[in-house]
Amino acid sequence: MGPARAGSRNRKRGGAGGLAPRQLSPGIMRVLGPGLSARLLLPLWFPLRPRQPPGPQLSSGPVAAAGALQRAMDELLLRAVPPTPAYELREKTPAPAEGQCADFVSFYGGLAEVAQRAELLGRLAQGFGVDHGQVAEQSAGVLQLRQQPREAAVLLQAEDRLRYALVPRYRGLFHYISKLDGGVRFLVQLRADLLEAQALKLVEGPHVREMNGVLKGMLSEWFSSGFLSLERVTWHSPCEVLQRISEAEAVHPVKNWMDMKRRVGPYRRCYFFSHCSTPGEPLIVLHVALTSDISNNIQAIVKECPPSETEERNRIAAAIFYSLSLTQQGLQGVELGTFLIKRVVKELQKEFPHLGAFSSLSPIPGFTKWLLGLLNSQTKEHGRNELFTDSECKEITEITGGPIQETLKVMLSSNEWVKSEKLVRALQAPLMRLCAWYLYGEKHRGFALNPVANFHLQNGAVMWRINWMADSSLRGLTGSCGLMVNYRYYLEETGPNSIAYLGSKNIKASEQVLSLVAQFQKNSKL
């Protein structure tokens, strides 16, 4: 379980009302009760940009219209982006008129196409960043003062001037927009648009990456833990919240309202963070299962009914974090998941003082893709095999009736292998040790390559147990060959573990994981 994202491409942009109301069948209405029949189950979501034209309506051809729109963008930015005051006047310059920033918000809201929004953001990043001439001048001043014996106050002021010069001009625009009603919401959506444009390669370059970093830093301050409220979701929560939670579930999709009722019912807990400026609106959602031991199968959590309608405290010995979903793409990279897990642990300890085990049950996104890449590379190297032992090769070849690499590539890509009980048994040992190496040994800049592993290891969790056929859903088979992993949180050890991972890049793992890694290293030269 790691922080998953609610994909922005799956949400259609519409008018001020957002997504269309969900149509309720008579069966659902019987479940919900007659008192809810008049309440539309609208998603609780940031208001979408108003539909209004970005400028005068143009009747000429597309080339002329594009040129006119670009000129309108340039005129808007010159008018809306506040100039950077001189250093001496930085605290005396009055704030720009509210209408200037509102003009930008209104204009941006009228851009219906993602390419148009990308164009405007690219022009903002390129033309209204740091004044490099000022930076060079102030840097030279600092270097000169360091070479001469001067009072500390003089050097400190020169350094402060340099810091001031390093602030991009568009930061002032973002700052003043945040003071508008709904301004922070707007900036969250703007960053989501920026990330989408970067992913689509509609806008690229160092200036855009820098602006994304600046905006992420500002959002990280505004959405720090002190401004966040922890809220629990139950079946009696507002319908809008329940629907928003169900739509945000990106790890294990909610099938229907009865499914949602199970996930917030007995032996289950659901929590989310909301911001003080938008109470009741979920930013990130955590689902927890209260079980008798550490779960090794997700279907047992999301499909099976709880043992009883009334919780028996003596049956609860473990808390399993099985889904963590970010609802706002614009908050990607802002540290919310770590804070949410810590707060939920405290809440559960209050409710169940005897609770001793805290663990995730996490997907392993990317494992199947990585494995297919290995099989492909080994096929190209004329059948060289470092992934399977000789006895495994023989057994798998006898079952499949073809060359092991080529046959497995086809079967793993189509999930056909799970239809053969013999093949499932034959693949268990090799796929378990390959998965252990993928999680433990494959790195990006020294840290775990797998993003979910990296998240939990940063939190100080232990890579505790890899589980075979733990997710038999299509998503689980496609993403990780049905494998899942428990990251266990030993509360007294999370601090030292986190420091060791972030500082020395040391991964704390259980004997099971380390044994599987050793088996892989014995059979492979990767």
What does this molecule look like?
Pathway: Metabolic intermediate biosynthesis; acetyl-CoA biosynthesis; acetyl-CoA from malonyl-CoA: step 1/1. It is found in: Cytoplasm; Mitochondrion; Peroxisome matrix. One of its GO terms (cellular component) is peroxisomal matrix. Its main location: cytoplasm. Pfam families: MCD (PF05292), MCD_N (PF17408). With 526 residues, the protein is an alpha+beta fold. It folds into three domains: 120 residues, Malonyl-CoA decarboxylase, oligemerization domain (Butyryl-CoA Dehydrogenase, subunit A, domain 3, Up-down Bundle); 135 residues, 3-Layer(aba) Sandwich (Aminopeptidase); 157 residues, Aminopeptidase. Strands 1, 2, 3, 4, 5 and 6 form a six-stranded mixed beta sheet that branches. Strand 5, helix 13 and strand 6 form a beta-alpha-beta unit. Helix 4 packs across helix 8 and helix 8 runs antiparallel to helix 9. The radius of gyration is 27 Å and the shape is globular.
Provide a quick synopsis of the model:
Strands 1, 2, 3, 4, 5 and 6 form a 6-stranded mixed beta sheet that branches. Helix content is 48%, strand content 10%.
For this entry, give a set of tags:
526 residues, six-stranded mixed β-sheet, Aminopeptidase, 10% strand, alpha+beta, 3 domains, 21 helices, globular, Butyryl-CoA Dehydrogenase, subunit A, domain 3
